[in-house]
Amino acid sequence: MSDDMNHLSFSQRMGQVPAVKVAQVDSIDKALKNSLWNVLTLKCFSGYYAKERVYPDRLRTSNFKDFAEKLYSDFYKAPVDTIPSAWSSLKTTMKESYFKMSWHQTYSFIEFIVKMNYNGTKQTLIDEFNIVLTRENSAYRFAAEKLIQITSKNEIEEIERAIANSDQYAGVRTHIQTSLGFLTDKLNPDYRNSIKESISAVESLAKKLVGDDKATLGQALKVLEKHHNLHPSLKTAFSALYGYTNDASGIRHSLMDNESALTQADARFMLICCSAFINFAIDSTKS
Predict the structure, then answer these.
(1) What pLDDT digit, counting tens, does each position of 9-49 carry?
(2) Closest CA to 148 of 42, 255, 267
(3) pTM for this structure?
(4) What do you get for the CA distance between the two ends of the chain, in Å?
(5) How far apart, in whole angstroms, are the C-alpha atoms of residue 230 and residue 227?
(6) Domain span at residue 65?
(7) 171/236 same-domain check
């Protein structure tokens, strides 16, 4: 049996169940929904403990009191005085609510829990969620604490590296994170502004590299070409891509023009491309 077949179940090998799912973009199937819930149960909710042995189920004297209050106040937007008094009841309420959620509400929910970082569970949840999202062929992955429609591990790493690498360049980091926010807003994505923020991140870095707040990307590319071995072809390619956003019909000059609507693919490509360039430029200045 080939290595490609080793991971398949009997049903998949017999052709009764698809070996590869169609990527889940605007939906979540039962297997994915259950698996995401299992991660929450095993890696977050299992950390519950009672501060009073006599009343092990009393929520207000447990280590999950603050969790419940934040959940009701900031996610459910419900009165905190309607929080169940027992932990078991809260779990039941959360579970019933979770399994009634639409696909985008489900992702909003797990994203909210990750950002809470309750009891220091953030990174464990991100790692475990990404395993599940990959296994169940979801179109989304966690990158920089947000869910983004992206399928390549290398693409995720470029965005995360750009955010991590730009610690010393506050403006760069802010623009990349803002671009990611516009791109990953599941209800009201703003692809045009996501692209603008990605380009602004590169411009911000250019100013730092040249040491001039009025510097352009073109000047920064010349610095990289002269002092850091920037390949002429790469310089030409990025100059052309940057030029697209600045010409008469580009992003900057036609914000109200809907003749050619921008897509998620456009914004995602620009974010990944700009992140990759930022990583390259910063790494080049270190060498």
Answers:
(1) 676 565 555 555 556 788 899 999 999 999 999 999 999 99
(2) 267
(3) 0.69
(4) 47
(5) 8
(6) 23-138
(7) yes
Q: What is the mean pLDDT of residues 203-231?
A: 78
Distance of CA 262 to the CA centre of its chain: 20
Q: Could you please report the per-residue DSSP string of 219-249? A: HHHHHHHHHS---HHHHHHHHHHHHHHHSTT
Please give the pLDDT value at position 259.
43
Same domain for 161 and 132: no
- 270-285 pLDDT, tens digit each: 898 889 888 888 887 7
Helix, strand, coil percentages (3-state) for the chain, rounded to 5, are: 65, 5, 30
For residues 69 and 171, state if they share a domain: no
Question: Taking 50 as the threshold, does the pLDDT of residue 255 lie above it?
Answer: no
Q: Is the domain of 69 the same as that of 162?
A: no
Is 11 or 87 the better-scoring residue by pLDDT?
A: 87
Q: 272: domain CATH number?
A: 1.20.120
Residue 129, Cβ density class (10 Å: 0-12 exposed, 13-18 middle, ≥19 buried)? buried
Please count the structural domains in the chain: 2
Structure tokens at 156: 């995720």
Burial per residue of 80-97, b for 16 or more beta-carbon CB atoms within 10 angstroms, e otherwise: eeebbeebeebbebbeee
